[in-house]
């Protein structure tokens, strides 16, 4: 790889004197052009356009953000524009201080980096600094990479310039330290970030205090921290703060730690069944403890070997190291698996593996991680992140041959690592201790997104040797290039302060990375050139590191890339596979459509299919959402199109094997949850945890479908429409003269059958009418015949039907039962009633819309989607001329009648309320196609169903995440 100084598509920043010299001539980097052209600013090479950003809450139709006339390149998607405008533009909306253009946002960040680089002697000349600024701006403008969210929030503003999203704290066995933990964690949450720590230094409840009494133990102190995290919502936003709590497996309180969330899940179920609102974000969920943290047990090799051999394992006192008790290792390990199977916690971290790859062991062990588990380093430290969009480096020549552009990838990695290191020079930190440690070790976390899309586009199954080889090669090249640049920077501006003490260990870890690279298996024409470039990079790392040392103790991680993944228009986040083959896409000017992933035709072309075949297969996917039985597609190619959800899903071990393929080439770890089907057993979870250790991963978390109460239930739709047999409304045993007279319905009566979903629970409602005088009976079908819910719905149907036939006005039922809150609740599949607080709430809103006159239901605040849109457009819900015929139907009932006539023709009903519900994200679209509900919470900001991103959840609608950014 020789330096290239000409052409807009090659170049980069290199230490003066050429690659690998670490030269100091000019005391700075000579920066070359990669993408930019001399004399032309990157902004002048794109087409800009003005757009209006209006973001609504699908639950109630309210506008939660609006800014009109923002300026973006025409190539940016609607979603990316919306998220960047609402999340990252600074200044109060409606004031002159508010940013209105992507140019302002990028300039605010990039110019700050350039100025700091010049101030701290990173560049050989002002010309090099200008090229650095232009190259960085180009890469951000064209969505080639992105910094993590705190950079966009804070850099270049008057507030503290925090650039890190990941923090690790520490706590000792003293009340002063415990109270400091509460305070420091709260300050980090207030700033919008997350933190993790290890509680194992706190003595157990089985040990004595100096006064003679029993210690409280770490689990008791977790309660106070959990309450604090629930109160201090992250960054003042609607999501809870993100935190990680770790406990060593040899701590005497480890069993109590394992069981904390299991017991709370039982409490949630009991309270939910009693009618309390226990949904995620519900009013009553705050009464449950330990819900604001991810819990992980830190296991060591001694314990894992004891599990394999069936040996006993010692739990040790914190202060003396003496054995408090011995336990059966397998039994303890199974308790971990049982708890994870029941509620997804605790996860597992492999202590010896983590510290085997530790570059700074002389300064302390790695004992904890950030909330998403990708950053693992010293206590009281932080890491700032940036992620590359891998699809930007996939090249296709005129003959259709694909290649990964290793040369350009190397240049961009060097550029990004340089910028990330510069940021530590000016960054602010939430605590003094974190600032000290971060400046002394300069931990960075470069990573990537869109791996799943890249693998599919290149014809590789996610769970395949070829897919893992390409992922490993790219990861190795990224980290090797990062450490080479770190060594070059050390030759110019000096190594990190802690390097001298840790030089031997740091270089040993570099040797381990290089050996893993050499031992990796090469598979095909795509990964082999990448491995070759990675091998060269690691050779340079060993040579330059021995000469100059390193500027950074850590270089790479694989983060969730939630919000910034949407900013870069990535199809997949972090190391995750594709969610599904058909995606939801917002359109400029409003509206949306579903599209087959662009990666699918690329994959088919790579696999050798002809254009006509590709067209037929894509059409099949568009109709069915999967490739099963697609015309002309060979069955051996099905696996290429396996996704995280859908007809063909990737096996749990497929996820673990992919993590193992990338892990040897990362400084830190990987944020990822291994999704397991609801049919998984405790033994399956235990096997995943055991294989994760054997395969060399640093941490694992699992989620078994439908295991958590706070998630919507997953249920397949029925293949045939079940019809409820008419409920037997028993006659009163004797007639009392003063009672109202019951008006029975005729044998033949008009009716409307509606299928519905509320918060993941499915059902059918049949509403039958008198031929000329309104609603007369309601039948409800929920759950399986003979279940408690089905029985209660039958009884409720009979009660309502008899009441209607005895003259109780429908309006009375509607006023009494709407807004009643209990589970299941949440999103529905009805475009007129997007959110329901319970099944009963939904039923009577739907009945009001179908049978009550406009004036009556409008007074109750119940409107159709069309009426709400009319109100937004005109300020009035009143029907217009086009609705006159429908209004006349409402007015045709006799005055004083309790209900209006039903719609006379089923065709009219079908036109007014289309069968397919409106989707607002790829997750919701997938639910529609597959007839299931994804195990993901609703976004508390906009009501959209979120999707998993690493160990967190991400909202495609507004960019919110359930964890650290």
TrEMBL record:
Its EC number(s): 1.17.4.1
Entry keywords, A to Z: Cobalamin, Cobalt, Disulfide bond, DNA synthesis, Nucleotide-binding, Oxidoreductase
Q: Which residues cross the membrane?
A: none
Compositional bias per record (Basic and acidic residues), positions renumbered to this chain: 904-921
What residue stretches are annotated with the Ribonucleotide reductase class II vitamin B12-dependent N-terminal domain? 53-143
Q: What catalytic reaction does the record list?
A: a 2'-deoxyribonucleoside 5'-diphosphate + [thioredoxin]-disulfide + H2O = a ribonucleoside 5'-diphosphate + [thioredoxin]-dithiol
Where is the Ribonucleotide reductase large subunit C-terminal domain positioned along the sequence? 164-703
- Every copy of the TSCPD domain together lies at 749-849
Keyword Oxidoreductase part of the UniProt annotation:
yes
Question: Could you name the domain of life of the organism this protein comes from?
Answer: Bacteria
Which InterPro entries does the protein's record reference?
RdRp_reductase_class-2, RNR_2_N, RNR_lg_C, RNR_NrdJ/NrdZ, TSCPD_dom
Q: What ranges does the record give for the region Disordered, renumbered to this chain?
A: 1-29, 892-921
Q: What class of enzyme is it?
A: oxidoreductase
Residues making up the signal peptide according to the UniProt record: none
Q: Biased composition, Gly residues: where in the chain?
A: 14-26
Cofactor(s) the protein requires to work:
adenosylcob(III)alamin
Q: Which Pfam families match?
A: Ribonuc_red_2_N, Ribonuc_red_lgC, TSCPD
Q: Which PANTHER family match?
A: RIBONUCLEOSIDE-DIPHOSPHATE REDUCTASE, VITAMIN B12-DEPENDENT RIBONUCLEOTIDE REDUCTASE
What protein family does this chain belong to? Belongs to the ribonucleoside diphosphate reductase class-2 family.
Q: Which NCBIfam families match?
A: NrdJ_Z, PRK06556.1
Give a short account of what the protein does.
Catalyzes the reduction of ribonucleotides to deoxyribonucleotides. May function to provide a pool of deoxyribonucleotide precursors for DNA repair during oxygen limitation and/or for immediate growth after restoration of oxygen.
The name under which this protein is listed is Vitamin B12-dependent ribonucleotide reductase
